[in-house]
Predict the 3D structure of the following.
Amino acid sequence: MASKSSVKPSAPGRRIQVRRSGVHGKGVFALVDIPQGERIIEYVGEVIGWDEAQRRHPHDPNDPNHTFYFHVDEDHVIDALYGGNASRWINHSCGPNCEADEDGGRIFIKSLRPIKAGEELNYDYGLVIDEPLTPALKADYPCWCGSANCRGTLLSSDLETAEGKKKSKKKKKKKNKKRAK
């Protein structure tokens, strides 16, 4: 008896597919070879202010550090929980094959190098938290990418670089939030 493939046939023109990831939860995979420098998908969802993002936080109380927020600028964030597409399932990697590219307030995921069919898409979230990067805080945002240069956390180790790129997936924490000891 022939075994069934876990990959469903794609519709004509489809280049990516969401499915189970070996990195974390769901992931996004290339169905065709994607050349370097190509826009793959736009990160979409409801555009809200940071005050509203704080009000909505956490999306899942059982996993409070997992959100679908993407920092656009100091006043706007995309919440892909509402109106999002497959882009919200692209996992983080410290050795990414994609990057986020801001263009006129819109965020596009673009390939950094050629991506082979079957390869999982990923980019460096470069999360920025308005708190000192303590070992405990880094542990709250673990990275499972497995790349040779993995820093062990989704948090950016270089605040200036992360802010300069303005391409970071970001979640602000309330400064006065009490941490359990």
In short: The beta strands are 16-20, 26-30, 39-43, 46-48, 69-71, 77-79, 91-92, 98-103, 106-111, 122-123. DSSP finds three helices and ten strands in the chain. The mean pLDDT is 83.
